Each structure stands twice: as structure tokens, then as C-alpha cells.
Amino acid sequence: MEPRVRVDRLSYRYPGSGRLALDAVSLSVARGEYLAVLGRNGSGKSTLVRCIAGLLDPTDGTVAVEREGGAAPSGLVFQFPADQLVAETVELDAAFGPENLGIARPEMRARVSGSLARAGLSGRASARVDRLSAGERQRLALAGVYALDPAVFLLDEPNSMSGERERAATLDYLDDLARSGGTIIHVTHDLDEARRASRVVVMENGRVAFDGARPEFDGVSRVDLSRWGLVSGGSDADAESRRPRPGSGGNVVARARIRVGGDEREVELRSGRAIAVTGESGSGKTVFLEMIAGLRFSPEGAVERDASATVAMAVQESESALFAEFVSDDVAYGPRNEGLSGSALVDRVRFAMDLVGLPFGDFAERRTFSLSGGERRKAALAGIVAMETDIVILDEPTAALDPVSRAQVLRLIGDLRSRGKCVVFATGRSDELSIADEVVDLGSGFSLAGTSLVAPSRPTPEQRSLERLRAGAVRADDPPASPVLRLSPSLKYLLAAAPIAASLLAPGWASLSALAALELIPVAVARFPARRLVRGLLSVLPWILAFAALQYWLWPDLGNAAIFVLRFLTLYLPLSLFVFSTDHTEIVYGIEDALRPLRAVRAPVGDFALVVGVVFRFIPLLYGEAARISVARIVRQGRAARRAARNPVARALAAVPLFVPLVIRTLVRAERLAEAIAARYYGTGKRTRYLDRPVRPAEIALAVFLVASVVAFAFVSRSVGALP
């Protein structure tokens, strides 16, 4: 058959790396072929598909993709779906790729509608992306690629963070795509997933170790599979052998009372036992674990922990939990905060690193952020193990790991349990439940039971801080329907710019007071919640009053200080209304419309508009990253964090370690967002719009009125101010 993809002696070396991630790889993929790519962590699988997608430029060799029959050469589904989503709503995200390809609007709408239907998201077209479950985000990532109509579908471990139901749905989706003649390259760690393909390639140390049809792969010996890291060599049996008899275990160290469906149950955490928490994507597994760890407030008092019991939690994304430059220093972070030092600290770090499969002699002096993804996850686990807490909580500890590394983590759970720890771990894989003494299935979601175990308490400073960060990661409720909400993007910009211009032109307190009163009219028409408006104002008012006081101290004139505060208010009202009523897409559209004349001189208007839109999109992402890093910092500071909560100076010093990982994670998320935009062909041609937001005649009249009003306001205020 005619090759769809040709890879000829492809090599790639990451900047600063001493080895080739890909070493002279050659292969071809025929049109309509379903290829599975297997290999252990770090074998070069992801690098290969990123080179094919054009996100990485080869160090040597060539990649060619025949795009005949497709609107785009390739479409890549990232390992973590959240990294791939760039727009604000489901349908706009699915439309982002076709917009960049310049597809006509009628065809684009048909593509988006068809792709969402195929992904089972037709009923969620207008839903906000940040409110989707993990499974829905996975399906949206698939829909966005399908809407591109690519010649080749590339999938980089798309099921790494999925539950059983989402995993099955994705595989069924791929089977249907293959039957319809689609060309697929599917990177996976799972042998069962690979056996659904027509051909299998195994990567080892950046090279192709095996390339053959599926029947040929089925005949490969277990020795070769083990050598390639595709089977664990009986590690699961080792973990099973450590399982204690039902009902065994030591003292109760914590309890939780929850309701799943119509059933209420009490979960007891006992020393020397392992509890698996499972459920569908979005069921609240992470929330449940964080409640046990004391990282979320339980107003009903449905979670109780022994006051003397210590707890540590390994978060899902290991990069968020790494603070120090060198691996051994990072593992020592928690024990050092508890006062351990000298040879005792070294012994603790050595033990933890050896236990998770990072030999101390080989990795102690390695730079933390030079580790592979699997090694980082192990380093994060070592940092938790080294704290020697009574309760060890692991959130999806085997996600994105190859079979050998996954077996090491399962052995680790058995080892911790045999040492008397209570281990609570979340998993979306049914085959991992057998090592647990008890399984807590949250189904599609859980709630706190009404009967309190303990008296309700007040949230701690850490809990309040985390909730503020988490709230910043999700936009507030959608604004209610109103005439302001229905305005075109251009007019929303003008509605904000007109009062801002009037505020800057107003000479005194009387005109500013009148302007503030006038600005309340569109605020009321937009049905802006008064509580939200006042809450936002109060959050910044202390700073404004401080600047006003400084101005009064430098230039003792109470009138000027009052004018300063009033002018800020008249700037705050229209800007708040704009943010409240304008979504990210309208921000981009409005800038493009306003700067359209500059296209005549070849100004990069579209790029500038996209950058502004990305900034608005990126702000909540940073809130989410800060929340995850804060979680990791708090659980690894132990008692030090509780002391810091009572001491403002200590609390400020304790936040210093958050800076380095936040900067690194900011750069990582920025790079991933840039890759997501590039993978969906931004800047490759003339861009069209999915939404049609024409300016209506009534809006033109309103625009004229706004401009005339600003001119009249400036003239009248200046004239009145000039009177004796």
C-alpha cells in the first residue's frame, strides 16, 4: 500500500541532553494502517510522534507525511488532555483547528457538529472547558483532532489518566476510525490496547526493536517482552503475596463517612492496610484523598483523623511536588522540615530512594528536572516515603508509567503496608484493585454523609488559601442573559473604552461622581451581581487607599486624594463589566476588529489578538498550578506548616520554596500551550471565524451615541470646571 508516513533515519537530541532520544529511526505507515507504538518510559515513543506532528525539528533524518485526502497532514492527541485545550467552550475548542485551516464557516460548523457527536459531546457544546470532567476533556481532545480531518491520527498515550469506561470509549473510537479507513499511530504502554492495532512497533533506547504485524507480535516470547519493559515479570504476584488476611490491620488512624448514590458508608483507615479509591473520571477521587489529608475543608465534619497521626500525600502531577535542584535534596525536603539531619537524614533518603526504584548511588546527585517523566514520579514518591508518616496517600501513582515501573509502585504499596503504614491510593485501573485490602468505589461521584463524625470546625489558613487558588482556576458562573451580553465584541470594547476615556478627561470630583453614577446604568442592565462587584472592589480598595494616603503625604491636599480614589472607581466599574460580560473568544475577535486597518501595513494583528486571548486563558492555569504546588508544599512541610500558620513571618518564609517550581511549571505550561496551538495549525494560512458576530444597525447607533456622549461629557465637565 502507498505510504502515508515516511520516517527515514530520524534522530533527535533534546537540548542539553547527552544522548539521542531517537537514534536513526526508519519506518513507514501505509494509508489506512493502525499502528501501535510500545516501549518503556523514555524509549522515544512520544518524541517520535511529536516529530511526525512537526512539533520537533529532527536533529538528523527526515519525516514526510502525505496529506492527500485530509485537510491537515496530522492531528496529535496529547498524553494529558488538559494540555491540548485552548479555547473557552467545547464547540470553540473543537473549532480552533478548522479556523486555523481557513475552512469556510458552513463546512466548519458541520465538522464541529460531527466531531462532537462522534465524541458524545453534542449536548455539551456550549459548556465551559474548565468545568468538564477528565473523561470529557479526553473526548474533546479527540473531537478537536477529528475536526481537523487529518491524514494521520497521532495519539500519545491518550488513556494515561482515564478510567476504565473512558479508556474503553477511546479504544472503541479508534476501532471505528480504523474501520472507516483512518490512518492511526497510537502510542501506548498497554499490551491489550496494542493488540487492537494491525501492526506493532516496539521502541527501545530510541531505536526500533520490533516492527511487525500483530499476529507476529503475538508470538513474541515473554523474555523479549520483559527485556523491552512491556511486562513486569511477576511483580504483580509479589504485591499480591504481601496482602494481609481480610480484616487484619492495626489501630484506626482516620475515618470518613461518605454517601455514594443512595448508600452511606464509613471508611476506616487502619495501620498496616491498603485502601484503593476508584471511580469514574470526575467522581472526586482527588477531592476525597485531599479531605483525608486535611487539604480540603469538611464543613459537615465527615472526616476525622487521629490527632497524633501524621499524613503525607503524593499528588498526581509529579513536577508540582519537586522543589530542590538535586534529587537527594528534594527527597530530604520533608524529613529536614521535621528536624532530621546528619547521617540519620542521609540514611532516610537512601532508604526511600532505593525503595521506589531510584538507587541512591545513581540518582542522588542528578538534577531533579533532568529526570524523565517516570523518574520524576518516582522521585516525588520517594519524597513522601521519606517522611515516614502514619498515613501515605498516593493519587494515581501509576498513571503514565510503563508496566515495569507500575509494578515497582505496586510493590512499594505492599512494602509500606508491611511496615505498618496505612496506604490510600487512587486508581482508574481495575487490575490494581486486587492488591488492596478494601476498595472504595466512588462510582460517578460522592457526597459527604449527613451524620457528623466530629463537630464541624473552622477551615485552617492553608485550607482557605488553597480554596482561593482553586477558585481562581475556574471562572465564576456564566453571566446571566442580558442586552449587554448580546453585544458584538467590538461594541463591548467601546462600552468599556468610552467611560475610561471620560474618566481620564474628567477634571474634578463632581464630574467623576456623575460619571460613576452613569456607569452604574450598564452595570445594572448587565445584571452584574452586586455582591461580586463589591467583593472585587474591596479586594483592591486597601491598595488604592494606601496610594491615596501616600499621595496626601507627599502633596497634602485632601481634594486630590479624593479625586484619585474616585477616578479609580470610574476605571474599575467599566473594566469589571468588560471582564464579566466578555469571554476569551470575544476578546480576540474584538481586538482583531479594532486593529483591522493595520492589516493594510502587514501588522500581525491576528498574532497580537491571540496573545491577548492566551494571557486571559493562562491566568486560571497559573492559579491551578499554584494550588497543586501549594498542596505538595504543605504535605511535605508537616508540622512546620502548622507552625507557619500561626506565625506570619514563618508563613512567608515557608512559601519561598513555592517560587522555583511555580516558575518552572509556568514555563512548562506555556510551552505546552504553545505546542497545542501549533499542533492545531495556527499561523499556517488565512484564519476564519467559527462564530459570526456582525455589528447590527442598532449597535452602530449605540456606538455613535457612546462616542458623542464622551465628547459632550468632556466638554461640559471642562466648561463647568472653568466657571468662577
Entry keywords:
724 residues, alpha/beta, Rossmann fold, 3 domains, six-stranded mixed sheet, five-stranded parallel sheet, 27 helices
Characterise this structure:
The protein has three domains: 3-230, Rossmann fold (3-Layer(aba) Sandwich), CATH 3.40.50.300; 253-459, 3-Layer(aba) Sandwich (Rossmann fold); 489-581 and 694-722, no CATH class. Helix content is 49%, strand content 15%. It is built from 27 helices and 18 strands. Strands 5-6-7-3-8-9 form a six-stranded mixed beta sheet, with helices on both faces. Strands 14-15-16-12-17 form a five-stranded parallel beta sheet, with helices on both faces. The longest helix has 33 residues, at 605-637.
Helix and strand layout, with pairings?
Elements: E1 3-12, E2 22-30, E3 34-38, H1 45-53, E4 60-65, E5 72-77, H2 90-100, H3 105-118, H4 134-148, E6 150-156, H5 164-179, E7 184-187, H6 191-194, E8 199-204, E9 207-213, H7 214-218, H8 222-227, H9 235-241, E10 252-260, E11 263-270, E12 274-278, H10 285-292, E13 303-305, E14 311-314, H11 327-331, H12 333-337, H13 342-356, H14 360-363, H15 373-385, E15 391-395, H16 403-418, E16 422-426, E17 438-441, E18 446-448, H17 461-472, H18 489-505, H19 509-525, H20 530-554, H21 558-581, H22 584-594, H23 605-637, H24 639-645, H25 648-654, H26 659-679, H27 697-722
Parallel strand pairs: 3-7, 3-8, 5-6, 6-7, 12-16, 12-17, 14-15, 15-16
Antiparallel strand pairs: 1-2, 1-4, 8-9, 10-11, 10-13, 10-18
